[in-house]
Amino acid sequence: MLTGAQALIRALEHEGVEIMFGIPGGTVLPLYDALLECPIRVIGARHEQGAGHMAEGYAQATGRPGVVLATSGPGAANLVTPLLDAMMDSVPLVAITGQVASHKIGTDAFQEAPIVAITTPCTKASLLATAADDIATLVHEAFRIATTGRPGPVLLDVPTDLLAAPSTYSYPQSPTTESEPHDSRVGDRVVSLLESANRPVLLAGGGIIAAEAHQGLLALAEAATLPVVTTLKARGAFPDHHRLALGMPGMHGVYTATTALQHADLLVVIGARFDDRITANPEHFAPRARVVHIDIDPKEIGKVRVPEVAIVGDAGTILDRLLQAWGNRPPPDRREWLETLTGWKRRYPLSYVQDADGPIKPQYVIERLREKTKGEATIVTGVGQHQMWASQFGDFRRPRSFVTSGGLGTMGFAVPAAIGAKLGRPDDLVYVIDGDGSFQMTSQELTTAAIYGIPIKVAVLNNGGYGMVRQWQDLFYRGRRHGVDLHPTYPDLAAQARSMGCTAWRVDRPEDVAEAIDQSLVIDSGPVVVEFRVDPDEMVFPMVVAGGNNDDIALGAEDLQTLPQTRNRRVRAGSGPISDSSTEAAHTLFEVGRRGG
């Protein structure tokens, strides 16, 4: 006879779980005691949020579901952010939480929290075990839900008395599945659209990576000569060095990628959800394009943009069917479109100026890192300006090489996620690009990396503040900063990292950047942190104003002043109207987004 805890562990073993992340507490002590007798490795984090992000990083880097454990009450509540983050980014995650004893539920017992009710809106499912014999079945159900269809997080809450109670275990039979019927006319219609289009664009989202469909994406793009843009969550799904690669579009996307969408006459969207960071104002997004939308989640079809052709299904399966429908047709002649795109690339490249005497530009650090790692590292980022620069100036050639928080935009994601990524792919070089604000939210997890000897590398781009928020205050609120400036020296981030068991140092001069990265790459005994003091006034461009028009792309701060939506925002934010030299200037549209096409 097994206990409920032992049955739970047996179920985890059957699901192939080798590593979990968590923090013990009173209600999960029966589970932790039973874990001593099994081969599953449990990594002890310093905070449940960190443990949840570790599980996310593991899942993003491997494609396998991450597993996190937490006790009841505040322990379980601390998982809400990682669960919501995983929900937004379609990351398979299984969270197992302890609960007070069954007879105490609803009595406001010590460390009781209604975690199932709390997490229901931010998970695919939140389950409560009500009998010890049901625990194993619920574990298998949690994994099934997390990994089928659109991936996502599932929570299983188990009262502590059930973990200690007698239980049985039997592996459930695999449910029978039926393949989706395929209407060949849909494939024929898409092929017809591809053949007739003059300016097609393929928009690849994170669903490509979730479905392991990157080979099919590459094959279709080459067969039909389709330029490819990749969302933030799809970086690496299509190799950046490919002649058809345009990069990331949207608010801080590459000029050519954003403008290509605006001029496309056919937009094939695969595994993407028309996020507002990509579309800006949906009414003005890709106005000339007919849309084919392919997604595994039927709720995404028509949510933002009504497509001419909608296909619900697994991205890999659908891509295979489209390739079959394309057959042996020769690649279409799209020289005029490709020449236009090449012209935009040359005319509006990403740019910055690094002065020899400093200050260090954050883009310069990322470019040197890209050169030193030859595009082969797994890059993990926090959220903020550094995240955008990492996407812009990075070189991503394979799926799962860019691990980041997209939809929720969770600061503090990077360090714990990198720990999970490294444990999931121990042979990969895992390098964090973080900002000082994001870094300080979960930097305590460096202790976890040091104790377990996990050799992640961390580059902290320290600009002394919450850079992205500061950029918005400077641009749209008359430079009226409030709450965004952090002290550039306190804490001493390098000294703090050393106190947590890391090798760490600070870099202040541009000429020392390359050598610092070289040094970090040869240290494998444990975590390494390099703090780069970077220009606090550097901003992220290109930029499309939130809710604006993707035709209006600002390449610098001076370009924003002529955009009506920017001017209106600044008038509302300030204490009075802005004085202009002429009325005409107040109504001038910035036209750079329309040039060249």
The CATH fourth-level homologous superfamily of the largest domain: Thiamin diphosphate (ThDP)-binding fold, Pyr/PP domains
Computed over alpha carbons, the radius of gyration is 25 Å
Biggest β-sheet description: 6 strands, parallel
Beta-strand content bin: 15-25%
- Please bin the fraction of helical residues: 25-40%
CATH topology of the largest domain, by name, is Rossmann fold
How many domains comprise the coordinates?
A: 3
Give the C-level CATH assignment of the largest domain.
Answer: Alpha Beta
**How many separate helices?**
26
Query: How do the strands of the widest beta sheet line up side by side?
Result: 3-2-4-5-7-6
Mean pLDDT: 92
Give me the CATH architecture of the largest domain, please.
3-Layer(aba) Sandwich
End-to-end gap: 73 Å
List key phrases describing it.
597 residues, alpha/beta, Rossmann fold, six-stranded parallel β-sheet, 26 helices, 15% strand, disordered C terminus
In brief, what are we looking at here?
Helix content is 38%, strand content 15%. The chain has 597 residues and is α/β, with parallel strands linked by helices.
Detailed description of the structure:
With 597 residues, this protein is of the alpha/beta class. The chain folds into three domains: 166 residues, Thiamin diphosphate (ThDP)-binding fold, Pyr/PP domains (Rossmann fold), CATH 3.40.50; 164 residues, Rossmann fold; 172 residues, Thiamin diphosphate (ThDP)-binding fold, Pyr/PP domains (Rossmann fold). It contains 26 helices and 20 strands. Helix 3 crosses helix 18 and helix 16 packs across helix 17. The C terminus is likely disordered.
